[in-house]
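Worked Example 4.2. Consider the chain below.
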Amino acid sequence: MQVSGRVTYNGHGMEEFVVEKAAAYVSQEDLHTGEMTVRETLAFSAECQGTGDRQDLLAELTRREREADLTPEHDIDVFMKESAIGGKSNIVTNYIMQILGLHTCSDTLVGNDMARGISGGQRKRVTIGEMLIGPARSLFMDEISNGLDSSTAFQIVNFLGQLVHILGGTAVISLLQPSPETYDLFDDVMLLSEGHVVYQGPKENVIEFFESLGFRCPQRKAIVDFLLEVTSVKDQKHYWTRDGQPYQYITVEKFTEAFHAFHVGQIILKALEIPFEKNQSLSPALTNSKYGVSKRQLVNAISAREILLMRRNSSLYMVNFAHMAMIAFIALTIFWKSNMHRDSLTDGGLYLGVLFFFVGETMFSNLGDLGGTIMKLPLFFKERDVFYPAWAYTLPQWILKIPITLVEITILVSMTYYAVGFDPNIGRFFKQYFLLLALSQMSSSLFRLIAGVTRNMFAANIFGTFTMLLLLLLGGFLLSSENFNKFWLLGYWISPLMYAQTAISTNEFTSHRWSKALPRSTEPLGTSVLKSRGIFVEAKLYWIGLGVLIGYTIIFNGLYTAAFTYFKSTLNCMTIASTSHGRGFSSLTNKALDKKFAKLSRDAPLKRSHQKRVMNEMESPTNNGRVSLPFVPLSLTFDNIRYSVDMPKENKARGETKDRLEILKGVSGCFRPGVLTALMGISGAGKTTLMDVLAGRITGGYREGTITISGYQKKQETFCRIFGYCEQSDIHSPHLTILESLLFSAWLRLPSEIDSLTRRIFVEDVLEILELTSLGGAQVGYPGGYGLSIEQRKRLTIAVELVANPSIIFMDEPTSGLDARAAAIVMRTVRNLVDTGKTVACTIHQPSIDIFETFDELFLLNRGGEEIYVGPLGEQSLNMITYFEGIGVNRIQDGYNPATWMLEVTSTLQEQMLGINLSVIFKQSELYQKNKALIKELSMPPPSSTDLHFPDEYSQSLVKQCLICLWKQNLSYWRNIHYTGSRYCITIIIALLFGTVFWDLGMKRARRQDLFNSMGSMYAAILMIGISNASGVQPVIAMERIVFYKERASQMYSSLPYTFAQVVIELPYVLVQSLIYGVLVYAMIGFEWTATKFFWYLFFMYFTFLYFTFFGMMAAGLSPSGGIAAIISSASYGLWNLFSGFLIPVSRIPIWWSWYYWICPVAWTLYGLVTSQFGDVEEKLETGETVAEFLRSYYGFKHEFLGVIATVTMGCTVAFALLFGFSIKYINFQRR
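Applying the procedure from the previous section yields the following structure tokens:
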């Protein structure tokens, strides 16, 4: 992206001061730490941003008070001092929370997509509060009213206006659908279109400007809506007022030229021509200090937050500690000292295997740091350089990782050192302890570095595993140093694992216990063991190895900090560009639009005596020109609905004695065909919760009450077939296009008897209705990343439900994130649906007058989940206004938005001021009795009616569900270049790496070490590529699982088709991967070229890569988060490594653990690979026995068992796939 031009603050260029401290930016994205409460989030922001120049202002104010002999009011004095000094009390934080209406949820966790937390509107207010609590004088706020009700948005903008006017600040705020009252709070307005400034200046002159060009804003038309539509090619002509002149579309460029000639534009141009008179020194608000507080305070604040998160995520660490204890217990019972001898090189080899296992396990235990670091990156990039520098973030992470590492290494070493039978000298015990501690720190910093460089979960998992492979391969154990090619010797010498393996080995084998000599040898047994594996024998190498590991730890942490300092987020917001005159809503030409609308107007029957309009009169209220699919009109009633959850711990800590927190308190109502109901209330009133309860989407808590569908008790399995739910969160498969997403939904949800052509036309009609036709081929992408914008994603969410042709539709904030024109398009579509007889209920925030009067009825909730008005709106909202004015609230002013007025007069503050309880008043009203009578009437089945019934649970047969899901997964995998491309790239790199490291060793069979080298290549390939596959697929499953939860709740398909598609789509991709690896490695290592042996090699590699992939899918399915999945996987990798038969042959495994060897999939793979290549070789070794005899005696490998081995390997693949399906079917980690 290129930027040109010059920006100045008070005449100072941006290079003269630190912009981040003078200007605060509030993004559209609500990025927060879900495990922190609202209060903790705002307090952390205040601690990091400091107080700016408030101390200087306080000093000046105090001086003037002394001179004037004034005594300030106590409360104001305390607040001023607190805000200037930035103390530890919560006065400023409480003040901001009170202003933003967050005091009621101050101790509630923010939450995220998988964990329950505050509402969407409250989350948006936390985003605003984070920056308001700082000292910045210039505020740039992007769409801050999304998810807020109009009353709350008005209060926030009103506060910002007072802040700017009193303190002399600057605020630039972009808003979507602001109410007229909110619009009136602004001083200036800037209208942008297609990248041009159409108008900038006092809001009082904007109507004058457009009237001078022949455009006039109609009565009862919000000025904001007029400003958006007057530059639109589709709407401009409806505001043309010069009857004597023919209308001609005025382009944005012509508007810009006209503005430059307008008197307001002339003033701005003259102001820009005159240089700003700046003083010699910078204004106090334009500081050269990059951060608001000292470096020590920043480190303390971030450290405190990390400690808090560690406490909140304590279960993750407990699982990790349990995993380490389990590994240590299994290791000590396998290598119990009574079974470990020191009489031969073979015994020494077992001890070396134990030490290698400890080294590898210590490395693997930190693999979870990859995912943990990646998951925190979006929040880090938001806070970097605004709250703190990168080093202040990375340093506490490094320091706080040390005590975690201390506990893990203490568990491992204390449980195993003496139990295994290492040298009892206490000094050697601590030397091993500190070496593993340094190794753990080194690996943790290395994985954090990889995460910081890749900044992508797929790439981080794959390259993290590749790094592990490289280190293990060059560590000197899998392949003796004397067998390395010269090309790889440099890698051997710089591998930190070589120094770790050398140091831990010399620490043990230079001890007194290994000092005896073998027969016909003069050197100690320990020295012989080390030399046999090419390991250095000098005792001083321990200290060199320890020093190198500490050095690498410092280097990796330094590079990690540098990466976080200089690299940018990979989520570049590349949204789909607009295509139609800057608006991007339609690909139709003006002429085609005119013709289409004319036809619709002719064909549209008058359904009601008074037809409501949303946008303008030229647009038809029905869809008669399109495909119409049959549906059954249905009503929904609910009576005395109560919903509660277990009382949060934070509430109990404040003295709350109740066991449950009641969110909905006995609400009742009905939604009817042909009636559009608005579900409204302030943020946190329980609107979304009520919809979730009625929709059956709640996964926890306690529900009471009665729900009926056209008089029959609601049955969830049939209700889903006739129901559509446009949720607040826009969850979609990122790699599908808009058209494919709609086809997928329609294919699975429309009745099977509808033919494909009709279905396709219906989908295209929905695309056209929501003006998504021009974007049909655009990929959905990721929120905040590439792909669709927030507004486009919202329309897609609505379209996905509309193509299902439901009878009952819930829409949770369908206009949030849309500008006024896009919101009008959506609500026009909704109105048209209702007019065909569908039952629709919408939660809605900040509706304009036009949109609000589109609704027929209002269901109004107050804070606490009680209804305070349920009834008709009436013409121009007269019924609702009459009801509330009859209670005694302030009368509505002429031209005031009824929706905004209604929320203002029903606020908790107004109730307290008037001394009334609106809920009690409503329940004593005649309107309440009418609602109860209507509910009773609709709760009785109509005569001759029958309950909902479908011959099958799903619209499509099981086979079709499987094929459709496979179609979707095929498209997703083909476009997911991060996953599939990275997997093939890393496979080629690993194949070339193995081929060059083990070059031409396949036919060397003269010594046992030659066989160990060949086995090492197989063992390392099995583990490393397998682990790479398992780690790489887990983010894919975690991402698609959220989509799956939504689609399964919509009764699109069962768990089996999803599992089938996810499993089957991996088969060809893994096959290609196996061929790439198998052909390259088999040729470069030089195994025996016979068709049978080559086939067996590919066979075992294919099924091994496959069962590792399915295991990764299973681990993700069984885990609530990526961190837990990484720990489960790491524990399994450790066990498979230990029982693979490479470190310790089955003959040396104690009988009480030998059973695990026979269920270890890696052991079977290694058995099959080694046996198929060497099990029939009769060449003699240096010991005189043949290769086949050695394998049979030492490892127990028998060539005649190849068929059994192949069957078990395939069985492992099937078992993991079935376990993945089980986890998907029976485990739901989503909390709603």
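DSSP finds 48 helices and 17 strands in the chain. The first strand starts at residue 8 and ends at 9. Compare this with Example 4.1 before moving on.
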